[in-house]
Amino acid sequence: MAVDVDIDVEVLKSEIKKTYARVSEQPDEDFIFPTGRAWAEDLDYPGELLAHVPEIAAESFAGVASPFALGALEYGEVVLDVGSGAGTDSLVAAQMVGPEGRVTGIDMTPEMLAKARAAAAEMGASNVEFVEGEVERLPFADASFDVVISNGVIDLIPDKDAVFSEIERVLRPGGRMQVADVTIQNPVSEEGRRKIDLWTG
After folding, report:
1. Nearest alpha carbon to residue 60 among 17, 30, 106, 28
2. Average pLDDT of the segment spanning 1-28
3. Which segments of 19-140 are extended strands (E)?
4. Which residue in 41, 19, 184 sits closest to 112, CA to CA?
5. How far is CA 182 from each of CA 47, 73, 131, 156, rounded to the nearest angstrom?
6. How many CB atoms lie within 10 A of CB 7?
7. Backbone phi, then psi, for 107, in 5-degree steps?
8. pLDDT by residue (tens digit) across 152-181?
9. What span, in angstroms and rounded, lies between the C-alpha atoms of 98 and 163?
10. How many angstroms separate the CA atoms of 89 and 189, rounded?
C-alpha cells in the first residue's frame, strides 16, 4: 500500500513534528482534530485506567479511537505502542499488562516523548519506556513484542508497506495488532495528496 505521491517526505515529517509539538506544548489550542482527556473519555477508554493517567499526558491525547476496544491486553504481555505521542495509550497499556509486562512507546516528536516520560515518572510506571524513532524503521529486534498498538498514526505515514512490514517483523509468532486509525472511502486526487496540510491533521 505504498502511496506514490509527489511529496517531500522529509518536509512532511517536519510538519508533522511541528503539529504534534504544538499539541504537546499548547494542549489548550484549538486543532482541527479533537484532543485531551475529555476526548479519550468520549472514545470509551477504560475509565478506571484512564483516570490514573497523569494530566500531563492526557491533555495532549490526540487519538482517533481506542485500540483497547479490540480487546484488553493480557497480564504479562510485551507491548509496542507505535506513535505513542504523550503516552496515554502506553500508560493505559502498562496498567493492563501489570508489573510482569512491558510497554515500549516509540515516537518521532521529542516534545511528546518528554511529556510521556514525565507522565510515566509521575504515575510510577516502571514497566514502560519511551524511545525516539520512526515507525518505518523500528529499532527493535525481530519477534520482540506480543502486541503492537497504534492510534491515529499510520494514516500520517506515506509508506504504509514499510510500516506494516516492520510491525510484522517485530511481532512474535501469534502476536497481534490493535490499531485505531482513520481511513478514506474515496480516492484522494493527485493535487490533494501533495497538500502537506491534509497529511498533518
Report:
1. 28
2. 72
3. 78-82, 102-107, 128-132
4. 19
5. 23, 22, 24, 10
6. 15
7. -150, 155
8. 999 888 899 999 999 999 999 999 999 999
9. 27
10. 33
**Beta pairing partners, 81:** 105, 149
Q: What is the dihedral of CA 147, 149, 155, 157, to 10 degrees?
A: -70
Which three cell numbers, joined as nine digits, stand for 186? Answer: 474515496
Q: How many CB atoms lie within 10 A of CB 34?
A: 15
Which of 20, 60, 6 has its CA nearest to residue 201? 20
C-alpha cell at 54: 497523569
- Only one residue has cell 495532549, namely 60
**pLDDT 10s digits, 100-154:** 999 999 999 999 999 999 999 999 999 999 999 999 999 999 999 999 999 999 9
Confidence of residue 7 (pLDDT cuts 50, 70, 90): low
Share of the chain above pLDDT 90, in %: 71
In CATH terms, the fold of domain 9-182 is Rossmann fold (3.40.50)
Listed by start position, the domains of the chain span: 9-182
Strand ordering across the sheet containing 128-132: 128-132, 102-107, 78-82, 145-151, 171-180
pLDDT at 22: 86
Residue 3 has pLDDT above 50, yes or no: no
